[in-house]
Amino acid sequence: MGPLIPQEIITGQWDFVIALLIGGAFGFILESSGFSSSRNIAGVFYGYNFVVLRVFFTAMIVAMVGLLYFSYFGWIDLDLVFVLPTYLNSMLFGGFLMGLGFVIGGFCPGTSYTAVAIGKIDGIVFATGFLIGVFIFAEGFPFYEGFYTANDLGSITIGEMFGVSNELVAFLFVMMAIVAFYVTWLIEKRVRKNMTEYKFE
Amino acid sequence: MNKNYLVLAILMILLAVGLLLVPERQNYQQIEPEKLMWDITQTSRFVTVDQVAQMIIEGDPTLELIDIRPVADFETFSLTNAINIPLDSLMKPDYQDYLGIEDMNVVFYGNSDINADQAWVIAKRMGYNSIYVMQGGLNCWIRKIIQPVEPDESASQEEFDLYQFRKGACAFFTGTKVEAPDAGKTGIKVVKRKKGTAVAGGC
Amino acid sequence: MHVHELNPKKTVITMIIFVVVIIAGLLTIRSPRLKYALTPEQTVLLTASDDGGISPEKLELLLTGSTEKVEVIDIRNHYEFARGHIPGARNISAVELLENDNIKWLRILQEEGFTVVIYGKDQLQANGPWMVFRQIGFSNVTVLLGGYQYYLAYKDNKTQKYAPCKADFNYAEVAKASVADGEDNNQPAKKTTIVRRKKKGGAVAGGC
After folding, report:
1. Do A60 and A124 lie in a common domain?
2. Residue of C nearest to A189 (CA)
3. Distance (Å, whole) CA A109 – CA A98
4. CB contacts, 8 Å: C122 with chain B
């Protein structure tokens, strides 16, 4: 059955409708997890609120395990699922840059739009800054194109890179996520005890 | 710690363990045995040496000839622009890349057609379409194209045309000089009734 | 904990839905009727080996010996069968042979140690079906070398040893008749660059 559009089960025009539905669901989950508050998001870096880590790791492990089971049932053809091509240098640098923006602004691009949706001023400022950054990036692309496309590993998965099966990677990731949940819970407890200026209900 | 968290964590761990234990699904895209058998009984997968010669002479860009004999045989002699995939290495990933290319017609050939047919069956099982087998293999190629036999007096005009074509092809491939063809056979033109066409006769 | 966090009812519901989906998937996996017992790689090895062919001489021995358990199957159509066939052969076409009853019969034959010989007009016709049966797991199926036409020639004693897949000529010599003028168009020198394309993915991914 595979991914629906590449296998032509439904036409390509459904692209935008599906994007709208998924985007709406995504925004709903983000908002109901409390991501429209920049305090929650920056809490990962200060140690008093790890909700970002918990929500995203949960999403990752559910999606990984679910996809691999679906592939086992024959409901999806994993060869047709898009895998982002890996440009090692630029991705490492981009990750670092985004982390920096995370801490300074207290939002990441998606959550800034959920903040805009509930009318927060800092969300609006962040979203505007984001668009300006995109414009600068696009216009200045010829200057750093070499850096951007350096070290192209192609569309490989972690399993392929280390020669293990995808199922093993998923299992290890689930283990790591559960351990991370427990550890961050402990850290939160410790840090919150020492913090007095932020009131937790 | 909320009890729900614990339950969820345990559920997730169980599912992940289940993922490890799940039997390895075959990664190939295969077609089922019944379909494979049905495809095998279709004789449209055979192409004659004449058709292959025609495609080479015309420079047909969609033709992809695959020689399934061992490397040594391939180096000694092969057809124009043929690719060598020895039969015992057919499933190697490097060679598999030659098979799935869009719009190319793959023709397997070997010394005779048995090995080429075996390669065809395996490739068909992997789901490739537009694959064919050259009937008779290189033995037939030599017998028909390089050493064409002049038909008897009583043969039909079609057979004479075919003979002329083969002589021309022979010249093309071996560089021999072609004798001025005697202008067909004069005289009686017996028009034979056309028989069924699924590629007639081997060698 | 934070009010934004865990709502017991919501989580139980989503948990149940997730598990139900997984279980439904496990239950509805189709097990196909005929499964391949050999991987394609093993099939390649099978073709490289000499196993699986049976010569007319050997077949005669098996048929005339009274203790040998052998079944001969003719996969040609009824008219050709009626015109002449190997004595004792059954006429079942290749596609029919995959039907349920025939598969059951073949399995019984395999358990009882019968050798099954398939033949067609020539070896080529029976080659494909033989491969399919071997791949499904019937290791007792063999193919008659040369097919019916070679069998007839053998019966009339006018045949030399059947050697399929051997070169009948020294190709290199024969094909280079006289390279007086005209280039020899048989050089594999000019290799067309074949663009290898692997299957590409579909939609474009987004960021977050």
Report:
1. no
2. C1
3. 9
4. 202
Consecutive sets of 10 residues in chain C, 208 residues long: mean pLDDT of each?
57 79 76 75 76 76 74 86 84 82 84 84 84 84 83 73 69 58 39 45 45
Query: With 70 as the cut, is the pLDDT of residue B110 above it?
Result: yes
Measured between beta carbons, which residues in chain A are less than 8 angstroms from residue B16? 61, 65, 170-171, 174-175
The total domain count for chain B is 1
Query: Shortest CA distance to B65 belongs to which of B49, B76, B41?
Result: B49
Using CB atoms, which residue from A68, A77, A181 is nearest to B19? A68
| Any domain includes A160 | no
Considering only alpha carbons, which residue of chain B is nearest residue A71? Answer: B25
> Is the same domain home to A4 and A73?
yes
Give yes or no: residues A115 and A186 share one domain.
Answer: no
pTM of the predicted model as reported, rounded to 2 decimal places: 0.63
CB contact under 8 A, C171 and B142: yes
Task: Report the domain count for chain C.
Answer: 1
The answer to whether residue C4 is domain-embedded is: no
B16, A72: Cβ pair inside 8 Å?
no
Tell me the shortest Cα–Cα distance from A162 to chain B, in angstroms.
17
Interface of A with B in 58-117 (CB under 8 A): 61-62, 65, 68-69, 71-72, 74, 77
Alpha-carbon span B39 to B41, nearest angstrom? 5
Residues of B in contact with C131 (CB under 8 A): 118, 121-122
Please return the burial class of A22, using the count of CB atoms within 10 Å of its CB with bins 0-12, 13-18 and 19+. exposed
For residue range B27-75, list pLDDT tens digits in order. 556 777 888 888 888 888 888 888 888 888 888 888 888 888 888 888 8
Q: Are A188 and A129 members of one domain?
A: no
Residues A35, A37: Cα–Cα separation, whole Å: 5
Instruction: State how far the Cα of B134 lies from the Cα of C107, in Å rounded to an integer.
Output: 34
Q: Would B132 be classed as within a structural domain?
A: yes
State which amino acid sits at residue A87: Y
Residue C105's CB: how many other CB atoms inside 10 A?
14
Report the alpha-carbon distance of residue A114 to residue C151 in Å, rounded.
80
Between CA C42 and CA B29 the distance in angstroms is 16
Spell out the per-residue pLDDT of chain A, length 201, in tens.
Answer: 667 776 667 777 888 898 899 999 988 888 888 888 888 888 888 888 888 888 889 999 989 888 888 888 777 777 778 888 888 888 899 899 988 988 888 888 888 888 898 888 988 999 999 999 999 999 988 888 888 888 788 788 888 888 888 888 889 999 999 999 999 988 888 888 877 666 554
State the residue range of the domain holding C103. Answer: 40-155
**Closest approach of chain C CAs to the CA of B115, in angstroms?**
7
Domain hosting A174: range is 1-79+165-201
Of the candidates B1, B20, B25, the beta carbon closest to that of A71 is on B25
